[in-house]
Amino acid sequence: MARARIIDGKAIAAELRKAVAAEVEALKREKGVTPGLAVVLVGDDPASQVYVRNKARQTVEAGMKSFEHKLPATTSEAQLLKLIDELNRSRDVHGILVQLPLPPQIDTRKVIEAIDPAKDVDGFHPINVGHLSAGEPALVPCTPAGCIILAKSVQPDLKGLEAVVIGRSNIVGKPVAQLLLREDCTVTIAHSRTRDLPSVVRRADLLIAAVGRPEMVRGDWIKPGAIVIDVGINRIEGSEGQPRLVGDVAFNEAVEVAGAITPVPGGVGPMTIACLLKNTVGAAQSQTQ
Ligand code: NDP
Question: What's domain 33-117's superfamily in CATH?
Fold first, then answer.
């Protein structure tokens, strides 16, 4: 069997960012509106700081305005809710993203629910979650949206495929399963209590792994020719003691069996911010209609 096609998430994300930039230009030209994204970071978690910096840079590169709000780790829930209220009212801000996780004194649910659903570019507000599960137009979580774009880059019509999602988190597993249902796939959601996971995975024409366990999915679990989308980002120790990123799928084994597969890094990762930019321009379009 030939080796799988490697799905180039970097290139597909770059294309998407270009398309978003063109939509931003059109909005400026036709409506005189520049889409704006506010990113709120509470505390000084180094990984979150890197994400926020990348989001801000790519927002500006796409022609949009970026508003960064960095608050100390001691910020109270009331202070954060006050800022969200200001951003909800601001005419310059079309998308609001609160970087998670939040410090323990702040109730994450309360904060997410305080964001205007029309500006909820992360797609975590219960109104957007509800619209998505009802099959209605919604702001959709970014990583799941990226997974679907990558799968469709291999097979534009996913109708009728047996899709297996491993993981049932609110940020990846559940929303990606909803999106697959919207694409008319037959969807199975597996999790830590699933019996005989390998045989469930072997049914999959399309596999989405969102677990957070390094190389858990082995090559002999994969159906020959399947499309494999690996969401996992796991830091492990490499051969020379250097840290190395791997996915939830044992890539070197799976690449010999699958039809197409995303690498880690360079697969799903780059799609997340690109989809965030897409959501922001979409939110700006809806708010200026
Ligand atoms: P969570 O920890 O919230 O969820 C993990 C899921 O995997 C749970 O539903 C859990 O089941 C399931 N699981 C755990 N162990 C097993 C097992 N042995 N067999 C089957 N299922 C299992 O993680 P997230 O959804 O937030 O993230 C998943 C991965 O994706 C992580 O590696 C994360 O870093 C990565 N990620 C990457 C993003 C990107 O590319 N931009 C964005 C978001 C996440 P149960 O519910 O039963 O506990």
Answer: Leucine Dehydrogenase, chain A, domain 1 (3.40.50.10860)
Does residue 231 have its Cβ closer than 6 Å to ligand 1? yes
Q: 135-169, pLDDT tens digit by residue?
A: 999 999 999 999 999 999 999 999 999 999 999 99
Residue 100 Cβ < 6 Å to ligand 1: no
Span from the CA of 160 to the centroid of ligand 1 (angstroms) = 25
State yes or no: pLDDT of 1 exceeds 70: no
232 CB under 6 A from ligand 1?
A: yes
> What's the predicted TM-score (pTM) here?
0.97
Catalytic residue flag (residue 55): yes
CA of 232 to the centre of ligand 1 (A): 7
Q: How remote is the CA of residue 211 from the centroid of ligand 1, in Å?
A: 3
Confidence tier at 199 by pLDDT (50, 70, 90) = very high
Q: Mean pLDDT throughout 185-192?
A: 98
Assigned architecture for domain 141-266: 3-Layer(aba) Sandwich (3.40)
185: CB partners within 8 A, 6+ apart? 158, 159, 160, 161, 162, 163, 206
Question: Would you list the domain boundaries of the chain?
Answer: 33-117, 141-266
